[in-house]
Design a protein that fits this description.
By secondary structure, the chain is mostly helical. It is about 70% helix and about 0% strand. It has a two-stranded antiparallel sheet. Helix 11 packs antiparallel against helix 12, helix 12 packs across helix 14 and helix 14 packs across helix 20. The protein is built from 21 helices and two strands.
Length: about 550
């Protein structure tokens, strides 16, 4: 319990009532004496003088607790040198030295396992400071040294916080330190206690010391964020590489979900402290994401390239890559306000680069499938078109996963257009006479049946898919045309109605020759088509065929 200290009057160096002015001249002194005698003979003047003198003397008295150095040291919880004088304590310098030693000695020491117990240690610091102030407050407040004690605690606290900052090694613990300094240390909770006088701890804090510490802490936080995000992304990639199969939706979306969670977790935590700090952390995370994607793109290109060369490539890896790119791109674009435009653009371009070569491999695989089946289909008497359909169903299976279905739709639209184009290319390379011998007299009807089968097959994979087979459906109508004018009208209709006209228009000259038109008639038809370029007369019409 705090002792009830007695108080004594300690006078100034002038303990006796003496004349304020001395002079060796007796005349001047006598003049003053005579004036004093006249004043003393006046009762009213004497009373006024006595009152002023009492006030002057009272102002020169300092009220101090009757306390020895040893007693004060005991109260502060510090030891004193036995050789030191134990008499009544005096001297501000000695008092401040004792307070500094007390604060340094009694400040809580960090635990050995700081990284596991940082939060509890900060609680201990808060309680220790508050308890010391409650214990010493009444005495030091009376002595007028409470502010100095608080200043000592501020200085000791930041020395301690600097040591803690050097000792913590994780983003989370650095964030805990920053949160404590920014939210708890500067709050009224630090010195709020019913036994303490109302005070504002911020008034005595050295703001330069404070801002320097915060800046160092922010830099360390960003450094830790960079290192931890880099390690986490590398670990995510290692886990992804270790999974050869993708037999469930969780495995299909897991890679990009883990990446998004990785780059979002730290900015969300930093947001609890400051929006500006959150933006800074997010920039670091996205910079690491870009570095990761640059390396991942190169590796994935090699992996998918080797897959594409296999006899039976596992298409799920291609679809998963497309989904990953698409989802990461959408996520990055939602953060456009938090990161620089150049960083956003570089990241999106990297993802689009990966999307492009993934689609390229898928198109090449689709083209190989279509080429191998359709080549035989147009040369043999066996109806092998259904084999192509079975191949499509095998390479592009329908799976009940939402993100897979989105990628499948994107792929199958391109595959649909490509198959139609390859079909037309092989069709015009075979004469109608050969097709009648291999198929049946009704070549046009066979083309329509094939077009319908192709559409229905893809419709099962991608509901509500657009009809990209109109060029095939219109070809029998072209075969039935009698006269050049009818051909012109039919071709104009094909140009207007067929959504694949841009991709297939290069096959039009060959298709017209396949119908039986002469070179002059072909040019006549092409002349009436808006925007249709006239091909040179030299060379074969088949030289314009596009090879995929």
């Amino acid at each position: 319990m705090l002792k009830m200290w007695k108080f004594r009057a300690c006078k100034s160096l002038r303990s006796d009532k003496k004349p304020l002015i001395r002079n060796s001249s007796n005349g001047k002194q006598e003049g003053h004496d005579q004036a004093d005698d006249r004043n003393n003979n006046n009762p009213s003047t004497q009373n006024t003088f006595n009152t002023h003198e009492e006030q002057r003397l009272q102002s020169e008295v300092q009220l101090l607790p009757e306390i020895t150095r040893h007693e004060l040291a005991e109260l502060l919880g510090v030891a004193t040198d036995d050789s030191e004088d134990g008499s009544c304590f005096s001297g501000q310098q000695n008092l401040e030295q004792l307070m500094q030693r007390s604060v340094s000695q009694n400040f809580p020491k960090p635990p050995a396992d700081l990284n596991q117990n940082l939060q509890q240690h900060l609680v201990n610091v808060l309680e220790a400071v508050r308890n010391d102030l409650v214990k010493l407050g009444p005495l030091l407040q009376t002595m007028g040294h409470m502010e100095y004690l608080i200043d000592c605690y501020h200085l000791q606290a930041f020395d301690h916080l600097s040591d803690l900052l050097q000792s913590v090694h994780s983003f989370q613990n650095t964030l805990v330190l920053m949160k404590w300094v920014l939210h708890t240390y500067l709050s009224s909770e630090l010195l709020r206690h019913p036994e303490l006088p109302v005070m504002d701890p911020v008034k005595t804090i050295d703001l330069l010391l404070y801002t320097e510490w915060v800046e160092k802490a922010k830099n360390k936080l960003l450094d830790n964020a960079q290192k931890e995000v880099r390690r986490s992304l590398e670990k995510i990639l290692q886990i992804e590489r270790s999974h050869d199969c993708c037999d469930c939706e969780e495995a299909y979306v897991g890679f990009y979900v883990d990446i998004i969670q990785c780059i979002d977790a730290m900015p969300k935590e930093a947001q609890k402290i400051s929006s500006k700090l959150s933006d800074d952390v997010q920039k670091v995370c996205f910079q690491e994401l870009l570095t990761f994607l640059q390396r991942y793109t190169t590796e994935q290109n090699d992996i998918l390239g080797k897959q594409a060369e296999m006899d039976k490539p596992e298409m799920i890896h291609f679809f998963k890559t497309l989904t990953t790119c698409d989802e990461l791109k959408k996520h990055v674009q939602t953060k456009s306000k938090s990161i620089t435009r150049s960083l956003l653009q570089e990241t999106v371009e990297q993802l689009e680069k990966m999307e492009a070569f993934t689609l390229k491999y898928i198109i090449e695989i689709t083209a190989d499938i279509a080429e191998s089946h359709l080549k035989n289909y147009f040369k043999t008497q066996n109806k092998e078109f259904f084999i192509l359909i079975l191949g499509l169903q095998m390479y592009f299976p329908k799976l009940p996963w939402r993100h897979y279905e989105e990628a499948l739709k994107r792929v199958m639209i391109e595959a649909y257009k490509l198959i139609v184009h390859i079909y037309l290319k092989h069709l015009v390379q075979r004469s109608q006479r050969n097709l009648v011998r291999c198929w049946s007299p009704t070549v046009g009807q066979t083309i329509i049946e094939d077009a319908v089968i192709l559409h229905n097959t893809i419709l099962e994979m991608v509901p509500d898919v657009q009809q990209w087979n109109l060029m095939l459906l219109k070809t029998p109508e072209l075969l039935e045309c009698k006269g050049i004018d009818a051909v012109k009208l039919t071709v104009a209709g094909m140009q207007k109605e067929c959504p694949t006209w841009r991709e297939d228009q290069d096959l039009l000259p060959a298709l017209l020759r396949w119908k039986g038109l002469s070179g002059r008639e072909v040019r006549e038809v092409l002349d009436v088509l808006p925007g249709q370029e006239i091909r040179p007369r030299s060379g074969s019409w088949f030289s314009c065929l596009t090879c995929w």
